[in-house]
Amino acid sequence: MASIKFCHECSNMLYPRVNPEFRQLMFACRNCSFEEIADNSCVFRHEVLHTPSEKTMVITDLGSDPTLPRTNDVPCPKCNGSQAVYFQSQSRHAETRMTLYYVCCNTKCQHRWQS
């Protein structure tokens, strides 16, 4: 389907309109009397591209970041390490609950998990 249709007589853009008598979708020129029946009933298409809201796996070596808070209360589920850094989800959507992300401080493990 072409995104924009043009008049065959005057080369201006055709606009969608409804023929109420036959209940048909038409494309009509606003400058001349040219009309054609639409071959597709889709007038507008809105495509939503979803992007991942969290990019926690991109940053490496979070365990050695001195700006992140540390905890000894949540042991690593993989290596049972005692210390982990944590940070909050950056998603600001109302329907999203707050999520804490943890990274093991053990340099050999660096396992990531969430609460």
Explain the overall architecture.
The protein has about 120 residues and is mostly beta strands. The strands form two sheets. The protein has a four-stranded antiparallel sheet with strand order 4-5-6-7, with no helix packed on it.
Structural class: mainly beta
Strand order of the largest sheet: 4-5-6-7
Q: Can you count the helices?
A: 0
β-strand amount: 25-35%
Tally the beta strands: 7
Order of helices and strands: EEEEEEE
Looking at how many chains there are and whether they match, the oligomeric state comes to: single chain
Bin the helical content.
under 10%
Summarize model confidence as the mean pLDDT: 83
What topology does this entry show?
Layout: E1 14-19, E2 24-29, E3 35-37, E4 70-71, E5 84-88, E6 100-104, E7 112-114
Features:
115 residues, mainly beta, 4-stranded antiparallel beta sheet, 0% helix
Give a short synopsis of this structure.
It contains no helices and seven strands.
